[in-house]
Design a protein that fits this description.
Double Stranded RNA Binding Domain, globular, 2 domains, five-stranded mixed beta sheet, 5 strands, alpha+beta, 20% strand
Length: 222
């Protein structure tokens, strides 16, 4: 009886909340270059409100920070964000009807190009909310954060939130950087984890088994 009761609660919660984890699908992995700077373009393929575009634009400027350049230079990179699906419930409908009013959804195809126009990276980000909580602004800002965070996790130097990206484990120890003494250790001990804090924690659990060079790198990140 308790099992049936718990199952009923779980099903009811799923129907009411409509919660789903965000997704990011990589078609072409991002390969960073030290000191890179960016321009960006928001390209609404679907119908997007002017207010939503303004929120996205402001968030991009904030997250890119000093890595944002006004004019594309030979070393510059251009982030193109094509919004292919956009649906946002009215605030009153969200709070009163929740999932009955549908689900908020933003789907963007993101490309990073070099100055010659060649595609360096391509990935898709989808953000959604079917609950009665949250705001349109929050979902839009979270969507932008996912885009920039991927660039950071891949070893990008986009900074964000006032933290120098060069001090992050992702930036100092990515397979694309000049020195990557932990790469083979990651493959051996933590093959299922992405680069970053999660894999560094995993490496520290095997510290005595790591190569001397990797041990030294981890000590510099304490």
């Amino acid at each position: 009886m308790n099992l049936l009761h718990a199952l009923g609660i779980a099903i009811f919660g799923a129907l009411v909340c409509g919660c789903a984890p965000p997704s990011l699908t990589v078609q072409k992995p991002y390969e960073p270059v030290a000191g890179e700077q960016f321009t960006y373009a928001i390209q609404p393929v679907a119908e997007v409100s002017a207010e939503a575009l303004d929120i996205m634009d402001a968030r991009l400027k904030s997250r890119l920070g000093d890595r944002l350049q006004r004019a594309l230079e030979p070393s510059g990179r251009r982030i193109e964000i094509a919004i292919t699906n956009y649906y946002m419930r009215h605030g009153a409908a969200r709070h009163l009807l929740g999932i009955m009013a549908g689900a908020d959804n933003i789907l963007s195809r993101v490309k990073v190009r070099d100055a010659a126009g060649d595609v360096l990276a391509e990935f898709v980000v989808e953000s959604g909310n079917a609950t009665a909580w949250g705001t349109s602004r929050g979902l839009i800002e979270d969507h932008v954060d996912k885009i920039v965070t991927y660039l950071q996790a891949a070893g990008g130097r986009t900074g964000g939130r006032g933290s120098p990206a060069g001090n992050s484990p992702e930036a100092t120890d990515s397979p694309d950087s000049a020195a990557h003494p932990c790469r083979e250790d990651r493959k051996r001990f933590c093959p299922d984890l992405m680069r970053g804090p999660g894999s560094n924690k995993c490496l520290r659990q095997h510290e005595q088994e790591l190569s001397p060079a990797c041990q030294a790198r981890l000590r510099t990140q304490n």
